[in-house]
Design goal:
alpha/beta
Length: 109
């Protein structure tokens, strides 16, 4: 996303800029344990650009994560508290490759 577009979106809409620790997960048993049923906490299929966020960020909020893109909050996680986010990846390998990153993210409320 071009920098000028981000500036415009921040100026026009209610957006929060956060520095977050961003990890990744996939819908497998290793990542989700007993919740590995392919359905997120909000009830939608675990497919596509989805973010797990703390409960103070409502479901369906839009989040921009550099290197991941725009996604909606559709999931929660036991370790997802404070300034932590988890991005959904299609495979376990992709989730491991993402690793743990500290990024400046945008959250539309």
């Amino acid at each position: 996303m071009p920098g000028w577009l981000l500036i415009l979106l921040v100026a026009v809409q209610r957006v929060e800029v956060r520095t977050c620790e961003v990890t990744a997960y996939c819908p497998c048993k290793k990542c989700c344990g007993r919740f590995a049923d392919g359905v997120t906490a909000s009830g939608v299929p675990a497919i596509g650009p989805i973010v797990a966020a703390p409960s103070n960020v409502c479901f369906n909020a839009i989040v921009f994560v550099p290197g991941y893109g725009l996604a909606t909050v559709q999931d929660r996680g036991g370790a997802i508290m404070g300034n932590r986010l988890d991005v959904l990846m299609p495979t376990h390998w992709a989730a491991r490759e993402w690793g743990r990153q500290v990024l400046t993210v945008l959250v539309w409320r």
